[in-house]
Each structure stands twice: as structure tokens, then as C-alpha cells.
Amino acid sequence: MATVANETPTTASDAEYRPSADEPFMGEKQLNYFREKLTAWKDALLREGKDTLNTLQNEPLREPDVTDRASSETDWSIELRTRDRQRKLISKIDAALRRIEDGEYGYCDVTGEPISLKRLEARPIATMTLEAQEKHERQEKVSRDE
């Protein structure tokens, strides 16, 4: 199961079931689907982190050539920044799993309206509807520009 830091991995159940607007919003079937999707994504990120840690522990970081050493250190710096972003992503995944357990998953934090299934499919950690997110980002931009 391949994944990129910002993409959710595909699971076997993805082929069998897709949430639909024809069924109750955030009914048991949809909640189970998103719980499994989030858990699989988290597991993949944790595995990648363990692989990085194992590599760091087992490979020498000191290269004899100064240029090679600088290149190696740059590569590791990028890798560690990626892992830090993934660590933050894991905390967002954990928050989404808590929202599932609390019965709040799939509803906008700002408006209380349902978040579209299409948005949740693309970004299962979403906490706002697309409209609320866009408004939030416009307000952030205005605040930064002032």
C-alpha cells in the first residue's frame, strides 16, 4: 500500500464500498469506512517513521568527503522535516478518529453543516466545509497582509 504524506492510502474495502449521498450521512457504514481509512493512513505514516528511524540508527551519517557529507546532511534534514509534518498529520488523524467516536465527524466546526463526502474522501481530516475553509483562508490572508 503506497502512500505520499498528504494522500490517504487505499485499503481493500475501498473497492467494496464508497460512501454515497443516498444513505444516511455519517451512518454506521460511513463512519466505519472513514475510521478504517484514517487508521490505515496513520499506520502507513507510522511505518514510514519507523523505517526512517531504523535507517538513521543503522547508517553512518559521516561521509569521508565534505561534499558528500553536506549532501547527506541536506537529505536527512529534508527527511526529518517530512517526518515532522507527518507527526503533525498523525495528530490530526487522531483528532478525526476522536471526532468519529464522539459523533462529531463529518460536520463543520464553524457552521455545524455536513462536510461533503467528496471533500472527506479527498481529505478525511477536514474539519470545515469547503466554503468555511475558503472563508477562513481569506481571513488569514487579510490578517497577514495588514
Average of the residue pLDDT scores: 85
The CA-CA distance between the termini, in Å, is 45 Å
Number of helices: 5
Oligomer: single chain
What does the main sheet amount to?
Answer: none
Q: How helical, in percent, are the residues?
A: 55-70%
| Contiguous uncertain segments of 5+ residues | 1-6
Helix-strand pattern, N to C?
Answer: HHHHH
Task: Give the class from helix and strand content and strand pairing.
Answer: mainly alpha
**Overall 3D shape:** flat
Radius of gyration: 19 Å
**What fraction of residues sit in β-strands?**
under 5%
Count of extended strands: 0
Considering the chains and any ligands shown, give keywords for the structure.
146 residues; mainly alpha; 5 helices
Task: Tell me what the structure shows.
- The longest helix has 37 residues, at 66-102.
- It contains 5 helices and no strands.
- It has 146 residues and is an all-alpha fold.
- The protein is flat, with a radius of gyration of 19 Å.
- Mean pLDDT is 85; it is low at 1-6.
Short account of what is shown:
By secondary structure, this protein is mainly α. The chain has helices at 12-16, 28-58, 66-102, 117-122, 130-145. Residues 1-6 have low confidence and may be disordered.
Helix and strand topology:
Elements: H1 12-16, H2 28-58, H3 66-102, H4 117-122, H5 130-145
